[in-house]
Amino acid sequence: MPPFLRTLFRFQESGLLVVILVLGVLLTAFAGTVRTPKFEKAADGTRQRVFATDDQGNRSPAFEAKNKFLNAQNLAQLAKDTSFIAIMAVGMAIVIISGGIDLSVGSIYALASVLGAMVLNHFGPEGIALAPLAACALGALTCLGAGALCGLANGGLIVALGVHPFIITLGAMAILRGIAFVTTKGQSIGGFPAAFRELVRFELGNGLSVVPLVIMVLVTVLGWIYLSRLAAGRRVYAIGGNEQAARFSGIRVGRVKLGVYVLAGLAAGVSAVLSLGYYGAATSGDGQGYELNVIAASVVGGCSLTGGRGSALGVVLGALIIQMIASGIVILGIDQNYSQIIIGAVVIAAVVLDNVNTWLAKRRLTRA
Amino acid sequence: MSYIEFRAVTKRFPGVLALDGVSFSIPRGTCHALIGENGAGKSTLGKILAGVYTADAGEIRLDGKPIAPADPLAARQLGIAMVHQELAFCPNLSVAENLCLGDLPLRAGGFVDRAALLARATEMLASIHADVDPEALIGTLSTGKEQLVQIAAAVGTGAQVIVMDEPSSSLSAGETHELFSLVRKLKARGLTLIYVSHRMSELFELCDHITVLRDGRHVATEAIAATTPSRVVSQMIGRELRVQTPAHLSRPAGPERLRIEALSSPTKFSNISLSVRAGEIVGLAGLVGAGRSETVQAVFGLDPAATGSVLVNDRPIAPRSIEAALDARIGLLPEDRKRQGLVLGLNCRENTALASLPVLSRLGWVRRGAERTLADRYQKRLRVKAPSLETIVGGLSGGNQQKIALAKWLARDCDVLLIDEPTRGVDVGAKAEIYALLDELACEGKALLVVSSELPELLGLCTRILVLRNGRLAGEVPRADFGEAALMRLMAGVDHASAA
Predict the structure, then answer these.
(1) Residues of B in contact with A358 (CB under 8 A)
(2) Which of A323, B23, B180, B221 is deepest in the core (most CB within 10 A)?
């Protein structure tokens, strides 16, 4: 094997890239085509439909055939859908690497969304007038603050009570969603300042909304820096790898754990901001079952649930794989109800593959 | 006539060749001693026979037929059982349930037949004259009693060969005596026993033949009657023990670095006062359970119930705080490096830097260049044999792992080093290197407090030795009075002096 190929092969995330490529090729091949209306740019810069004129002089709207998977619109949609999950998955990866788990991300996302929605509604068209930018900032900060506070509560309880994070966050999952429900009385909250939606839905070219993408890349880079460049990240790996040895090395285990859950909550808050802007409304039922997708993305992306292993880039690619499968199910016309079955199977397959890989590596080490 | 025969058995673990073509045989109905230093491969060999590990190469024959038990259950079916030191049972189940776990007596519908269960367990225990309540939970038994239950389980399931791995290591004198008489009874019944230990006196009292292993190789198999303890020792070590006086002894000790005053912790140890000066290596000896590790851990701030005071360079440090101990430049090399000393999944560089992160990072960023330089310096200084700084520590041999665990504290530049079992599970060559290194550190003016279960280690290394007994300081022996007998007397208490 040439050296550069070997380097690529050793590169932790290369396997995920291969899976993504294979999935992409398969989806393109099997997706079939779809007829979409053709658009063109008019002289004044607005989009207008293209019309074809036949021999008799009848004008009819023109259509073009596009691959159902491989077309700009679908890819843009895929990228946007991925970003919501991927951002939360980066937070989840940090928790899982520390040897913990956070089942409450979906509920944190819902609570942060409805609280942010209430603030935005307060300053919305039917509420108090405020400079649009200030209103947007207040709404976003509410989401982030609520997320971080929920994470702080999780981490605080886990550290102070010494209870397994599975139990604490399982409880928090129900409690936080309950709070969201009680606060909103189950009603959907919308009516945000127009500026907020315009900001988040800002599009480049033909329907490519860049804001969620940019935020996702930003969060990935920040997560990567945190995990691989900061002392704090090193401590997270150490605690997940061997908590007792970390303590014996003078690492304040409780403090690090607290921080990890705050980050997971904060990441859920970031996703909440994006979803508010994107959908323009929130209800207490938002983000139901997100914990499955987010944990699945982390595990598929190479995090070990026993802690000590994983990377930010890996989980983002993991999120992309999960989302490609979910959207692939739609594109291929498979019954929606199968999507959970398939995602569940993918998670198990990923872990089995990882175990086989670890076993092979161990054997190589012994043989050497 | 050979009953069990090992033919060129080889076993490799990541980074070490644990067994290298070991061949010897064991006659039926005898008690066979397996001896060697830590890391010689004696436990590995026993575990291969009992199916815990599988050999990479070679062959084992039982009664002339080649066997290769893939797991402990397969070994059981061949009539081979092992008595472990580690917990081999479910602690939350009763003795009777554990004894019959593989074959619970059932009634129709899958219900456990409790009466039959109890009767069978009682019978199994009675057959080896073990005085254990079959209804007690395993978790509530002493190590000695639990071992008896393991033997009862082995005998009760028809084992013909029993491998005992360091059976007496955590037994009281009375329990050891009980174990010996049981071993003799089993032998009289025609069972073959393999007794893995490094306690010479036991082997000579109990066994018929002895096999010495060294660094994974077979050195000798002889009848006990035809050999002597000193001959076995030289076979284990492979060369005459060259007594080399550590260099730090010839230098005057410096100012007092560490002082402990009336350090106590309920149920662990009480009223311990000692001091260590710069350039000294002070040994802390004692039997298992005397409170040695507990004491050094309390000095390092790990015991939340500790009282008393710890002073470094005459300044008292906040009690019960690892941070305070670290700030006072105390380092602790813990007893169990895999659980307490290292993060096995991280690499050499990351483990070396683990305790120095505050020094190595600026505004929270790890300075990677500085980190690499630091790790590289100590990897070279301690002569760690690893392919690179990026090698995962879990794949290294015991000796190299121990060096990395030590490098972590050297990197932190500690003045006071608490060293708990410096050479446990370390091969002979690395041992000598670690001794030389500790001597070097003392010469540099560091103060070392060394805990060890191996008396020769302390006798060779230390300026003076303090002895703990039942959590109290039993005495101090200056180098001039060093001698195993005197130390054993102090460790065991005067009453047991004749026994030791």
Answers:
(1) none
(2) A323
